[in-house]
Predict the structure.
Amino acid sequence: MENSYKDTASQILEIVGRDNIISAAHCATRLRLIVKDKDSIDEKRIENVPMVKGTFFNAGQYQIILGSGIVNKVYAELEGLGLNTVSKQEQSEAVNQQQKGIKRFMRTLGDIFVPIIPVIAATGLLLGLKGCLFNDNVLSLFGADSSMIPEYVILLVNVLTETAFAFLPAIICWSAYKVFGGMPVIGLVLGLMLVSPSLPNAYSVADPTSGITAVKAFGAIPIVGCQGSVLTAILTALIGASLEKKLRKIMPNALDLIMTPFIVMFVTFLVVILGIGPVMHVIELKLVEIVEVLIHIPFGIGGFVIGATYPLLVITGLHHTYTMIETSLLANTGFNPVITLCAMYGFANVGTCLAFFVKSKKENVRQTAIGAMLSQLFGISEPVLFGIQLRYNLRPLVIMLFSSGLGAAFLSILNIQSNSYGLAVLPSYLMDIYEGRQLLFYFLISLFSTALCFVLTLLFGVPKEAVSD
């Protein structure tokens, strides 16, 4: 058997070309080669090599699928043949330096969010269960209401369901800080500063009934916490890590331990809270004005725009600005059409997950898809957005945006609207049980959005690297 591994390594080296290979690394199942010219490789010959189960080119690497256990032994034989081998991390860094534009941006997002997806998904399930079990519409079926739930139960459940999202910018900042090459604990502290209880809470500021407003610095600059702001957290990590790396090159060793973190935290926090934060606050207020105009555009056009763009706001963390609009609509009309339009993307996300689960032969992709779907069913979309849609060439994302927009357009034409604040996917049906017609059409259109996204993703959105076993 040992000779078989050596024969496989020799044939791969011969077909790809020793001079064509810049470096080789491996992961759990695949041999990863950085090559000078991928077009010169005879892929049919490679796939006929014993033990090779398939190939694909992705993220600057020619990847040969060998399987768990086999890849380690073939890689060892390649090392014995004198091939330039490096660690997976070293090769990933090299690939990242070579990539430009949107590909590099997507890879960076994936590196940031993949490590934190399990925590977000688990919290999403807990939050969804809370939304169902503590909902007055559900409790009324048993002759109860939420006022009968003991206070200590509410307290403990709130800790379980709110902690990860209350400190989401801190979690993101910690992960991004690692990706950008800084000391992660500094990123964690900077992220915690963004959601400090001393700052006005962004969600409260967005709610006109809360009585909480932004603090004005120098009489003009609004200071607000960054709860839910994904983009601000990433920019904070980028600024902090970049500054830290520059300081470490020039700071005397005797001062580096204390002065570098001090300067990084001091400068980065002020830049973000007095510069980036206020800019994001102004953007949020403008978004409110735009959405209020879109709601009243006829023929479903405004609904399509809202349904197709809302997921992009979730990605950047600007979606909480919709609270202002929802509060105003409920106060003045008793109804909330915005949340029904926005909810369609959750159903479309379920279609994405189902398509990846059905079509992929890779166990890790299938696990990601089913975990993300379970989380999305209860309203948490980050695992789908960052674990699948932004990870694979943007095509699944574009399909989801179209499916969400089309479903929202039909809702807008039929004037389907909620009578409460937002719930997503399965719990969202509770928003429309006040009237049979509303619930029926909402249910049918939600199924349409799910099915449309599933079919389109199955046909056009699952890339080759997600399919191969």
Remarks:
- Residues 155 and 317 are 26 Å apart (CA to CA).
- The first helix runs from residue 2 to 16.
- The beta strands are 21-26, 30-35, 54-58, 61-65, 215-217, 221-223.
- The mean pLDDT is 83.
